[in-house]
Amino acid sequence: MSTTSPSPVSAGATTPTVVTCGADMFADAVAGQAVDVERVDWRPPMPGTEADLAAVATDPRRPDANRRAVEAMLGVTAHLVDVAPASEVLGLEKGQFLHAGPPIEWARTSGPLRGALMGGAALEGLVEDPEDAVALFESGSSVSLEPCHHRSAVGPMAGVVTPSMWMWVLEDRATGKRTYCSLNEGLGKVLRYGAYGPDVLARLRWMGDVLGPLLQAAVRGTEEASDVTGILTQMLQMGDEAHNRNRAGTLMLLRDLSPAMVTSGFESKDVGDALRFVGGNDHFFLNLAMPACKLALDAGRDVPGSTMVVAMARNGTDFGIQVSGTGDQWFTGPAQVADGLFLGDYGPEDANPDIGDSAITETAGIGGFAMATAPAIVRLVGGSVPDALATTRRMHEITLAENPRWSVPVLEFQGTPTGIDVSKVCRTGILPQINTGMAGAVAGVGQVGAGLVTPPAEIFPQALAALAQAVPGRSL
């Protein structure tokens, strides 16, 4: 497709300018004839979305609804206000388990989610041997499964939360709203990757007996609450993207909390062990970045007519999204296996499909959307530095705004692409880019690699159709 228009080159003379979209071959041929060519990156919309795109595009509520959703999201500042057991802050009772992603029943759970649930059951004393938990979950008589998102929480990878686990508590002081996330265990054979061996359970018990209470004392004993949103702002300037690279964020958190940890009155050995654990775990801050992003996105929920995505989450079987204008409804499709780099002798056949609530970071405009802030991330997830820069630029095509707090130095401090727009995804065919860890497909294995993944394309037309049906006055 092309069009031409005259372009003045000198008094009384013109030369044509050709605007092209689609295949580059025609543009290259015309440019070879010394004609000015302006290339437009145009793609056909996702198949079958034309009528719904037209309906949503003409929804009179949409421009203001998206403006209000974005402004609400960008107006949130997350502060770390407490650390406490899930039984206290989430009301979890014995036998109740939270998990990452949209709702799922035991029969459909993936290996890593099963492994994490089995380990969680042993941690809570429901079984002595994690292997015995299989019969417990198959019966379903004394246990229940519920998404973290349904209780204002998020969980990385399997995302399993049990009553005794300690949770970060973040608050937006302007509204008093709060979000929650468990403490980060580190990498390798850990519960969130589906491992449940004796070393995993021993670490979790130490976190419950020592680390959680110590962090609680430190948070409550710190005069000024840590500004998690502010730390995110700084770490993006320091080479982190806040999903798979959190080194600077972890050290800034340690800076904020370590004085109060040292003066907390806890045994010096416990303080030393905790400082070493946090300082040696570059991903420790991830579990604060995630609830900070959820706190912001939850502020943009439930705006009628808004096409902004407010959650992307995976349970290892399904990938689901929620949209501001459609309430709590999940739109789901099959989770994909990430393409990336593997640990040791592991390969694609060993990896489980994508899992975790950590895509809340991309939903908020960081993580895979901010790869240009952290070009070193490609050494973990694959690709190249130019790929990282191109990814951030491409995500601007499917988002509603830029976040002025979170800027990208290498892109002239442009704000990160923020507010995924369902209609733009369907119109362009560009899918959100997520960088992620990969869990082993078999329960108990743990982490096998890290890589890049996108949501299943079909979930965005599903959401678009629901938005189109809700347009006032539309005849069905």
Automatic annotation (TrEMBL):
Pfam families cross-referenced by the UniProt entry: AllG (PF06545)
Organism superkingdom: Bacteria
Entries under InterPro entries matching the protein: AllG-like, OXTCase_su_AllG_h-dom
Protein name per its UniProtKB record: DUF1116 domain-containing protein
Signal peptide: none
Gene source species: Nocardioides furvisabuli
